[in-house]
Write a structure and sequence with these properties.
The protein is of the alpha/beta class and about 425 residues long. The protein has two domains: about 170 residues, Alpha-Beta Complex (Aspartate Aminotransferase, domain 1); about 250 residues, Aspartate Aminotransferase, domain 2 (3-Layer(aba) Sandwich), CATH 3.40.640. The chain is about 40% helix and about 15% strand. It has 14 helices and 14 strands. Helix 5 links the parallel strand 5 and strand 6. Helix 11 packs parallel to helix 14 and helix 13 packs across helix 14. The longest helix has 22 residues. The protein is globular, with a radius of gyration of 21 Å. About 0% of the residues have low confidence. Bound molecules: pyridoxal-5'-phosphate. The site of pyridoxal-5'-phosphate (PLP) has 16 residues, from helix 4. The site of pyridoxal-5'-phosphate has 16 residues, from helix 4.
Length: about 425
């Protein structure tokens, strides 16, 4: 595989960018080798600067659910560009997108748009603390909610309860009120509630984890989590940044038939533009400024171009209704990985949730962070490069979900399956 131009850019980028990237996973540290520099993308394909073509199964880590260059979305963005970039004042499109969100999520009466998933979640923390008058928050080991201080807590193995900073520069004071429970394990939640009665403001959860690879919780766990939080006056913050509009238009809450207290959104809602959102019932959202005492603001929040992109993306998604297609294609990909693993003697498990899917190179069923970590990451690294050689762009980490685009053709699907088979054969 020719990567000369990517290599040159990687070297050049080192001088004035940190590690030549603006988000760490793009540096390919966990798979080694030279990161790809992308020139353009169209439909289901993405092209690097050396002219290599790949089927894009990264989808920019989730936003590009329609594939690249959807004509209706492009037209909407171009029209918004012509009207002006940003006004520091409200526009009708913000109202339109808020109506679409509120119509989709029964948990949301009012929504606030921000610029990223990280911002959505950190605003939700402040709001939950203000609403409940409590300080402690709970997250689950292996879940990622963006890079804000208080949720950037090391997801250590075993029964880690009190958080430790997961990054230098995060003071212990910022995480002293963060508690860590075990995913898919309601007893670990009960223990924390017993240990800190009346102190927990909110429990934050990825309703399907995508950031330890895909881990789908049991229905019973989600139902019990909802009942337990309600019974103890704890807000349930469902972080649908990744799962929103993904397996069902109504997100994971629709799938699990639960209603969150606060819902966080990102990725698909901006269709590739920087948009995040948090929303809740009136009683909670009315605490946010200018209606209430919880301050949260943004120069570019509700940016007109981003709103236009989000509206067009959601409209197209609703029209296309790709959810059955996702299910069928992801099931075929899952079967292909399992069959190839058996045929070539490679231990591999697959988790999936609609268009979110990924293999784990392990013998164990992956049900939480601990079992996800039994994966052979060296094997994954080889698999990643074999997939690239075979024309597939998958996330360069064992612990990231793949995202199928809604527009995969039959030919794409055949190519994906052939690439998987060849790649698993090559790492046996
Ligand atoms: N929450 C979840 C579940 C995510 O997957 C992510 C990002 O991957 C975030 C929050 C943070 O979003 P962003 O990267 O837009 O800040």
């Amino acid at each position: 595989m020719q990567l000369d131009k990517s290599k040159q850019l990687f070297e050049r980028g080192q001088k004035h960018l940190v590690g030549a990237v603006n988000s760490p996973v793009r540096a390919f540290n966990s798979v080694g080798g030279n990161p790809l520099f992308i020139k353009n993308a169209e439909g289901t394909k993405i092209y690097d600067v050396d002219g290599n073509e790949y089927i894009d199964l990264v989808g920019s880590y989730g936003p590009m659910i329609l594939g690249h260059g959807n004509p209706a979305v492009k037209d909407a963005v171009k029209a918004a560009v012509d009207r002006g970039f940003t006004f520091g004042a409200s526009t009708e499109d913000e109202i339109v997108l808020s109506e679409m969100v509120a119509d989709t999520f029964p948990s949301i009466d009012k929504v606030r748009f921000v610029n990223s998933g990280t911002e959505a979640v950190l605003s939700a923390i402040r709001l939950a603390r203000a609403f409940t008058g409590r300080n402690k928050i709970v997250k689950f080991a292996g879940c990622y909610h963006g890079h804000s201080d208080s949720l950037l807590v090391a997801a250590g193995s075993g029964l880690v309860t009190l958080g430790l900073p997961g990054s230098q520069g995060v003071p212990e004071a910022a995480v002293k009120d963060t508690l860590v429970a075990l995913y898919n394990d309601i007893e670990s939640v009960k223990q924390l509630i017993n240990q800190f009665p009346d102190e927990i403001a909110a429990i934050f959860i990825e309703p399907v984890a995508g950031n330890m690879g895909v881990v789908v919780p049991e229905q019973k766990f989600m139902t019990e989590l909802r009942e337990l939080t309600k019974a103890h006056g704890i807000l349930l913050v469902v972080d649908e940044v990744m799962t929103g509009f993904r397996k069902k238009f109504g997100g994971a809450q629709d799938h699990f038939n639960i209603v969150a207290d606060i819902t966080c959104l990102g990725k698909v809602i901006g269709g590739g533009m920087p948009v995040g959102a948090y929303g809740a019932r009136n009683e909670i959202m009315n605490m946010v400024a200018p209606l209430g005492p919880v301050y949260q603001a943004g120069t570019l929040s509700g940016n007109p171009i981003a709103m236009a992109c989000g509206i067009a993306t959601l409209k197209e998604l609703k029209k296309l209704n790709p959810y059955e297609k996702f299910e069928k294609e992801a099931a075929e990909i899952e079967a292909c990985i399992i069959d190839a693993g058996k045929e070539f003697g490679v231990d591999v498990k697959v988790n999936r949730f609609g268009a979110m899917i990924n293999p784990f190179f392990t013998k164990e069923e992956v049900v939480d962070f601990k079992t996800a970590q039994t994966s052979d990451t060296k094997k994954f690294a080889k698999f990643f490069w074999a997939m690239a050689e075979n024309g597939m762009y998958i996330p360069p980490s064992q612990f990231e979900s793949w995202f199928l685009p809604a527009t995969l053709s039959d030919t794409d699907l055949i190519k994906i399956k052939e690439a998987i088979r060849a790649s698993i054969q090559s790492i046996k």
